[in-house]
């Protein structure tokens, strides 16, 4: 005889696992494809109907019920356990991500749908039909409650999506393994084979769990306020994309580059003043800015004939070209026929070119390393001057004049020291706070007064107001940043250290 | 004689390090080679190789310059600039530049020897002329001091020091320094400042570059009678950190230890690089290939006059205005002869006893005073950079190990601005042994495997991943890398004797300055070119 109370514990865990997989898929789908109402609705629909398909299929299973049940457990474990890692890895690389997603959800649903009917048939000789249905369904629904509470409160914040998925896969295969004992009297043959299969799957899931640290480390998961949905260590930097209610965010080496909710304020402010100041630019250069968002703003101008984008990291520009959420946000700017992408160090590239540009947009990460500090040096801006057409204009992102006031003015003065006239300006970007820029040109100039039409943030009044700096961001005395002193990196480090 | 791995590592590094290295299995070695120099041919010449050129292999020419290092190339550059064209420069090696030579790879060029020059001050007119010509300078500041173009100044971060598992900024180990350490360091700097400010009754500085312009007042020259170590003891400075810094400086510039370097030379290292007391030392000018940039530039200017692979076998002043030079061409294995009116001997001074006939027959006393340090230089070609140690100062141009006998390594990609991925480390190891002949024997009896092991084991203390990152390691063994300014050499009359022309042979080499600096080699080359043209009654404006 078999002990029914233990079997009911199995039911509880099976139910929890099933719902966890469903929630995982729903979360991932809304992260990557956006529109969470539609995605959750779709996922639930597909999952439930797939369960129905599973329940229907259970009718075709005639014999070896216990053995089939355990095999299904193992199959759910492997598919459900690896669902999040598989989906995670396919984000950036596959344009048919949603097909994989729905397929995975459907298959898990079918398998989970097979479980309960089979189990009820296994237990039918042990209990009255009345008791059986009542207990199994009660426990099944309790499992759903456990899962729905644990998922947002404990699993996602503490384990992250990938580990949650793998841990529940392990739980699932554990149940199957255990069932080879509890259901032993009902299994006629192949008991050892079943156990071996379960052990192999458990080992695979364990390896996955260890490997999960390669995707995101637990420490890193806790570092970011929101869930990590993409991360990669390229030859140059650690790229992380997180997803929050407000949209998604890109981090390079842990530093926020933009938040999709308000990046338009930053990028409109970065790009348009320099474009308007030049007039009708035909040839534009972007240094840094591999996310393609500044590029999107540049391409709004129909006068632009060609844009060269120089970003060190191919992983970044590939992300901007392929990651669905980012492609949507940058309006496919990287793939525009007018755009040429070059993956090289901007300074070395500038040293070697003879080409000249009308407008240059500089969007490097903040100068927090010596490798970045050189891209803010007098030498760099002098090289840049050589690559400007007559009347050419330059816009530079210059970190925050509020949080890093000395750094900000150091950049402004350094650009001036390289022979430019500079108009400092700033804007408020909620994700960053007050952010600073520099508009530069050789020879005196007046600030631009007319914004392009149909922008989300800039109109004529706002454009002019950007050039007003508040008292707490006004000029301070600074040294000039040169390659041989890299004073900026030292300023920057001491200023931002206060906020860490 | 074949040494074991442990013996080699003990000899060049330390026995605890050798012990721990040998407890681990011998690591997989990258490929690599010893860079071939013409050592063998050199030894044959030393032992009296004599070849008679065929009659039609003789050529008449006014001036022959022997030696294509910085001194010889500078002499040629000066002659040509003054419109004198009837000369030839012969160089034993197939690559010009001497110890300033460099190598090239697809990634970046890299040095094989000297790799920087402190920014010259306004007094060094000749060098400023060269630097101006090369576009290194961009005018002068309000004190008339030259301004060096930013891209040629060593990029920050410049130097770091590895000590017990961590890197620290700069070359003085501030971390953990006691008050006594700091007080002594301050007192030392004050004493250096005093020497920077010091002037004699003629207004000459105690230490400046070129050293030909320094004061010969006994208050200064007496410093040459003692070693740098003795000098420190005079002030009761015993701080190990200060002693380390001074010893490192002696090893770095002269290849000799604090005990074997004259105090004059030791103070020269610090004081000659400062424009005024309390000023920071002159910034360093450098290129990925080090002073190879300078050597290659000079060579490019006089290329049509240079014959590479041509070894001088004998220089024989036979008449008042006739010197016979017999040579051996390594390219064709033929002997050639030159009949010149004058010779500029721009090779290391110890070679005079082997090559100049009357010197060989009757060696003058002063040549013995010239002693040379032996150096090993390794270039490590890395597929990627070593992983950064947490909370440690990042990779610099110059990276030094506090607890090593080596000088650490410089990074060729640093000045190029290549901040990621593959790079080349140039590792320097001067053998500072008291007896120069023992040092040379140690250098030459250690083969590629041995030296590669020394370099990798040493670097692995700071970068355990160096074995897997290094794709190739090439070794250069400089037997006579540079003249050693041992006590009683700089201001000994031998050095002055050596610099005087011998009949119609004029001498030009950094050896004659007693300190092996680019600036000195250049100065000697220019000086002798002008000396010769003056002797030929040519009118020109001197730049020295």
Brief overview, please?
The complex is a heterodimer of chains A (500) and B (544). By secondary structure, chain A is α/β, with parallel strands linked by helices. Chain A has 18 helices and eleven strands.
Description of the structure:
The complex is a heterodimer of chains A (500) and B (544). Chain A is an alpha/beta fold. Chain A has three domains: 4-210, Growth Hormone, Chain: A (Up-down Bundle), CATH 1.20.1250; 222-257, Spermidine synthase, tetramerisation domain (Spermidine Synthase, Chain: A, domain 2, Roll); 262-497, Rossmann fold (3-Layer(aba) Sandwich). Chain A has helices at residues 4-33, 36-58, 65-81, 83-90, 97-123, 129-182, 191-215, 218-223, 263-278, 293-299, 314-322, 324-329, 346-352, 370-373, 378-386, 405-417, 460-465, 487-497, and strands spanning 227-233, 238-244, 247-252, 255-259, 283-288, 306-310, 339-342, 357-363, 388-397, 421-429, 433-441. In chain A, the strands form two sheets. In chain A, strands 7-6-5-8-9-11-10 form a seven-stranded mixed sheet, sandwiched between helices. In chain A, strands 1-2-3-4 form a four-stranded antiparallel sheet. In chain A, helix 1 runs parallel beside helix 4, helix 3 packs antiparallel against helix 5 (97-123) and helix 4 packs across helix 6. The radius of gyration of chain A is 29 Å and the shape is elongated. Chain B is of the alpha/beta class. Chain B is globular. The longest helix of chain B is centred in the middle third of the chain and has 19 residues, at 179-197. In chain B, helix 9 packs across helix 10 (263-271). Chain B has helices at 5-12, 15-23, 39-46, 70-81, 125-133, 179-197, 218-221, 228-234, 240-254, 263-271, 292-302, 352-355, 357-361, 412-416, 436-445, 448-460, 466-469, 493-499, 518-535, and strands at residues 58-66, 87-91, 102-104, 109-111, 117-118, 137-140, 146-148, 159-163, 166-169, 284-285, 306-308, 310-319, 322-329, 334-345, 372-382, 398-401, 409-411, 423-431, 470-483, 505-507. Chain B starts with a helix and ends in a 9-residue tail after the last helix. In chain B, strands 1, 2, 11, 12, 13, 14 and 20 form a seven-stranded mixed sheet that branches. Chain B folds into three domains: 5-30 and 372-483, Alpha-Beta Complex (Polyamine Oxidase, Chain A, domain 2), CATH 3.90.660; 40-99 and 291-368 and 486-535, FAD/NAD(P)-binding domain (3-Layer(bba) Sandwich), CATH 3.50.50.60; 178-282, Guanine Nucleotide Dissociation Inhibitor, domain 1. At the A-B interface, helix 13, helix 14 and helix 15 of A face loops of B.
């Amino acid at each position: 005889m078999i002990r029914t109370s233990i079997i009911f514990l199995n039911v509880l865990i099976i139910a929890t696992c099933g719902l966890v997989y469903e929630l995982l898929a729903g979360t991932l789908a809304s992260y990557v494809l956006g529109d969470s109402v539609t995605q959750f609705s779709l996922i639930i629909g597909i999952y439930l109907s797939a369960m129905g398909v599973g329940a229907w299929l259970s009718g075709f299973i005639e014999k070896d019920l216990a053995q089939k049940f355990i095999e299904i457990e193992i199959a759910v474990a492997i598919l459900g356990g690896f669902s999040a890692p598989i989906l995670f890895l396919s984000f950036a690389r596959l344009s048919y991500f949603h097909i994989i997603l729905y397929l995975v959800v459907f298959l898990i649903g079918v398998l989970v749908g097979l479980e309960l009917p089979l189990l009820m048939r296994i237990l039918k000789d042990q209990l009255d039909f009345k008791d059986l249905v009542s207990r199994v369904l009660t426990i099944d629904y309790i499992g759903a409650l456990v899962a729905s509470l644990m998922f947002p409160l404990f699993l996602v914040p503490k384990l992250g999506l990938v580990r949650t998925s793998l841990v529940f896969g392990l739980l699932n295969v554990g149940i199957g393994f255990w069932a080879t004992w509890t259901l032993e009297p009902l299994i006629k043959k192949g008991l050892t084979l079943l156990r071996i299969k379960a052990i192999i799957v458990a080992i695979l899931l364990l390896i996955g769990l260890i490997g999960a640290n390669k995707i995101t480390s637990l420490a890193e998961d806790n570092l970011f306020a929101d869930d990590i949905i993409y991360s990669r260590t390229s030859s140059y930097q650690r790229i992380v994309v997180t997803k929050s209610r407000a949209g998604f965010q890109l981090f390079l080496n842990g530093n926020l580059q933009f938040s999709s909710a308000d990046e338009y304020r930053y990028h409109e402010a970065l790009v348009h003043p320099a474009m308007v100041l030049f007039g009708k630019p035909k040839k534009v250069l972007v240094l840094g800015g591999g996310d393609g968002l500044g590029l999107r703003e540049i391409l709004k101008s129909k006068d632009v004939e060609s844009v060269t984008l120089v970003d060190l990291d191919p992983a970044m520009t590939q992300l901007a070209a392929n990651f669905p959420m980012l492609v949507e946000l940058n309006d496919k700017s990287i793939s525009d026929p007018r755009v040429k992408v070059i993956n090289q160090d901007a300074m070395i590239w500038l040293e070697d070119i003879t080409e000249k540009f009308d407008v240059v947009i500089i969007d490097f990460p903040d100068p927090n390393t010596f490798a970045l500090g050189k891209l803010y040096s007098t030498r760099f801006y002098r090289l840049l001057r050589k690559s400007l057409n007559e009347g050419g204009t330059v816009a530079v992102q210059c970190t925050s004049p509020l949080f890093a006031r000395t750094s900000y003015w150091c950049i402004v003065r350094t650009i001036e020291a390289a022979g430019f006239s500079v108009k400092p300006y700033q804007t408020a970007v909620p994700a960053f706070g007050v952010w600073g820029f520099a508009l530069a040109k050789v020879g005196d100039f007046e600030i631009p007064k007319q914004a392009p039409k149909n922008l989300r943030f800039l109109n004529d009044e706002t454009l002019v107001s950007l050039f007003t700096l508040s008292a707490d961001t006004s000029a301070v005395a600074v040294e000039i940043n040169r390659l041989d002193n890299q004073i900026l990196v030292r300023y920057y480090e001491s200023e931002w250290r206060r906020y860490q | 004689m074949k040494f074991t791995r442990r013996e080699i590592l003990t000899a060049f590094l330390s026995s605890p390090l050798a012990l721990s290295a040998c407890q681990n299995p011998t690591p997989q070695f990258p490929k690599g080679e010893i860079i071939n120099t013409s050592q063998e041919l050199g030894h044959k010449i030393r032992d009296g190789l004599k070849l008679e050129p065929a009659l039609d292999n003789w050529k008449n020419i006014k001036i022959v310059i022997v030696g294509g290092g910085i001194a010889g190339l500078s002499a040629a550059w000066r002659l040509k600039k003054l419109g004198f064209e009837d000369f030839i420069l012969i160089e034993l090696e197939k690559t010009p530049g001497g110890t300033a030579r460099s190598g090239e790879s697809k990634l970046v060029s890299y040095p094989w020897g000297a790799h920087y020059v402190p920014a010259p001050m306004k007094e060094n007119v000749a060098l400023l002329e060269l630097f101006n010509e090369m576009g290194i300078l961009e005018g002068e500041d309000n004190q008339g001091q030259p301004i060096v173009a930013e891209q040629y100044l060593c990029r920050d971060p410049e130097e770091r020091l590895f000590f017990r598992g961590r890197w620290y900024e700069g070359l003085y180990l501030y971390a953990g320094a006691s008050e006594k350490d700091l007080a002594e360091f301050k007192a030392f700097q004050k004493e250096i400042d005093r020497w920077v400010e010091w002037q004699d009754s003629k207004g000459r500085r105690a230490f400046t570059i070129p050293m030909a312009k320094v004061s010969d007042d006994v208050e200064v020259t007496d410093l040459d009678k003692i070693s740098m170590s003795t000098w420190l003891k005079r002030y009761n400075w015993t701080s190990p950190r200060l002693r380390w810094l001074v010893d490192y400086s002696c090893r770095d510039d002269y290849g000799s230890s604090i005990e074997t370097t004259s105090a004059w030379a030791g103070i020269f290292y610090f004081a000659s690089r400062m424009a005024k007391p309390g000023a920071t030392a002159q910034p360093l000018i450098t290129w990925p290939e080090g002073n190879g940039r300078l050597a290659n530039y000079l060579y490019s200017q006089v290329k049509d006059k240079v014959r590479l692979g041509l070894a001088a076998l004998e220089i024989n002043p036979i008449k008042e205005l006739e010197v016979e030079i017999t040579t051996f061409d390594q390219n064709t294995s033929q002997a050639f002869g030159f009949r010149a009116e004058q010779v500029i001997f721009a090779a290391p001074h110890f070679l005079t006893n082997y090559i100049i006939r009357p010197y060989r027959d009757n060696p003058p006393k002063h040549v013995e005073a010239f002693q040379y340090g032996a150096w090993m230089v390794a270039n490590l070609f890395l597929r990627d950079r070593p992983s950064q140690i947490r909370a440690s100062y990042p990779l610099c141009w110059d990276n030094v190990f506090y607890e090593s006998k080596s000088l650490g390594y410089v990074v060729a990609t640093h000045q190029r601005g290549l901040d990621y991925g593959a790079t080349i480390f140039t590792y320097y190891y001067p053998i500072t042994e008291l007896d120069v002949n023992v040092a040379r024997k140690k250098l030459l009896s250690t083969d590629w495997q041995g030296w590669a092991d020394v370099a990798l084991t040493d670097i692995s203390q700071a970068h355990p991943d160096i074995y897997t990152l290094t794709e190739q390691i090439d070794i250069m063994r400089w037997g006579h890398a540079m003249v050693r300014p041992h006590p009683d050499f700089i201001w000994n009359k031998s050095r002055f004797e050596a610099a005087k022309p011998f009949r119609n042979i004029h001498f030009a080499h950094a050896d004659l300055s007693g300190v092996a600096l680019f600036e000195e080699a250049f100065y000697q080359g220019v000086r002798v070119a002008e000396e010769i043209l003056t002797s030929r009654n040519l009118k020109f404006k001197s730049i020295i």
